[in-house]
């Protein structure tokens, strides 16, 4: 027992080393110094996180030491432990044979445990068979070790002084280093996540343990107990208080080497109901016995249960005012039903334009245009993902309010959405679009309301291609209007001449009066106004992929700014071309971007990952006859585009929306500072390839962000901290709680069913599998693929392959499996890079590490068939993941890397 406590005491010091290394990393990463109280609190939390793992290591080493001590004297290493460098072939052979046997036993045992825990449906049977296999494996390893020992003994004699305990340990260390190097090569993400310091912490920890255990050689049993009690107190402290201080939580999870990993493991161990939220370690689960009760859950009022662990049963407050768009008065000089040119640029940051006084003159023409129109300086996208943001500003709805269909890669927009183009079409507008990418071509319903859409045939075509297409469309629309007006005028003249001849045959005052009435000036002939959308895509990464020289430098931001400058040239071509056309000077020009772009301001680059302002802030400017140039500071949403354009076009919104027309602000009404009392929301909804689930609330200068699945939240004051570098959640808990309540009230009252994860999961959980599925019996980790079903086996080019995979959860698992549904078209078929079904289960809504034992899950996805695939081709499909399947075929167990799903005929 004394030896056990010595090992446990040494392992506590190992935890102290690990905690202090992590603390040093946090201090190094901190932009401002930490106070002593913060350092002490972080030290306590890190110790509480490290200690459970360190104590497990101590128990393991104690058990290993006891085993070595009680071996027969002929195999004992006790003498060599006292003089490790002394030549001892016997110790050399013993250590290497033990190490070899231990590695075989550990590896074989792990494989056997994985095999029987995932391949057997009956847990009792699996345990029994696993026990038998482990006994047999132990015997086999023992025999193999005994056969190997004489060989190693001869090798130790040949090595001379190196044939010692120290030499054997050195060889073991080289083996571990080789295994670690192979792991780093095989899994490069390890080094990217932990860095060299984090990787080297493990061998340093072993050295610390060896040294400290020697220091505890004379430690008495009675003196170890207080140390263990102190360790238990630190563990309880971390479990109970972790997450209460948000700044400390972010520091541990974002800056410490192993902080996030330690928290994830401990939170998973303390999550009894498997809903992804633990009762300890900052999980905030108020009922860990019911999986449908956790933070962020749907909380219907009246059932007496606080399902979302917030603000009691249900929510009654109103957070957003819905109206007919809050239209404003139009100036007399604005033509009735003006032509509208709508230009959008993908991923353009407003603060990188010359309109925002950027240090580089990236947009000289846009700056001129901004001097003519209404510039909105604080515009927020509804999402940082284009396929969420663009539908939002075409419907005037937030992403959670939009009716989406199948969600895989591209969420389908259902016909029940009433879009801007459909509104304009009903008002008599001709709607056309020129899109500078092929990215949106597979989204059903994305262009509803447009009479004609021309999309590029590749992801990033030449920069001038989309403007050429747009100008061709605009010339045709203008010529069509001119022909229509001339024809209508000629018809009116003919009718007027015929009426004059008829009136000339009459006499008297009454005839004169009739003639005056007939020949009175007629109303101007009806024209067909147009709405044209041009989407410029080349500012979107990858930048300068055509080899164009960077104007500013070699960094990603330099190339991004160069793309913006090149975009500005194309924008000049487009606008000057429009203004040279008839009615060009009276055309309303709306310029916007769909979101921003990040450049490591928060540790990452790109977009679609977070809701920080660098991604969320967009560009918006309107040039319309009758409106004076202005700069507007109020925080507005991109979804306000829909009622604004309808307001300018003189038509109405069909249903109440949260979006507001910006015409009143353009006219000078209600202008002021940032805060006008309006609440804005932004969202990232998970889909098959992007499992990010985040919400943001912007109210005046305050912005609150929550990572729904992770349970993390931050609060910023944008007026004082526009870079979002100082989280104020700990100082402003009440304000954060109020914003959180506002978000939940809005979601509870206005989101559509199916946008909440719980509802998606509820719809996909089955009591029993359908009887008509194509049955399988294949297991991966602890999930059984029971079968699959194609809705149809014949699909046309451009159509959708609807596939359902049916899984049974055999037990809890830590693996977050990503499934690949892969087509195998003939080599001469150009299918493109997006013809696949790679996804997280339930399109990222229900990950495999959240599945509960016994659940039956239907995992449905819809794969778009490229139009480039010719008819008459038969395409095989298979499914695979990063782990092999074990399938039962004809009573035999067969391992497969992929499971065939049959063929689809393209007809």
Brief characterization of the structure:
By secondary structure, the chain is α+β, with helices and mostly antiparallel strands. The strands form six sheets. Strands 1, 2, 5, 6, 7, 8, 11, 12 and 13 form a nine-stranded mixed sheet that branches.
List keywords for this structure.
907 residues; alpha+beta; 7-stranded antiparallel β-sheet; 28 strands
Structural class: alpha+beta
Q: Can you count the helices?
A: 21
**Number of β-strand runs:** 28
Helix coverage percent:
40-55%
Q: Give the integer mean of the pLDDT values.
A: 81
First-last Cα distance: 75 Å
Instruction: Give the overall silhouette.
Output: globular
User: How large a portion of the residues is in β-strands, by DSSP E?
Assistant: 15-25%
Description of the structure:
The protein has 907 residues and is of the alpha+beta class. 40% of the residues lie in helices and 17% in strands. The chain has 21 helices and 28 strands. Strands 1, 2, 5, 6, 7, 8, 11, 12 and 13 form a nine-stranded mixed β-sheet that branches. It has a seven-stranded antiparallel β-sheet with strand order 18-24-22-20-19-26-27. Strand 19 (774-780) and strand 20 form a beta hairpin. The chain is globular. The model is unreliable at 117-123 and 502-525 (pLDDT under 50).
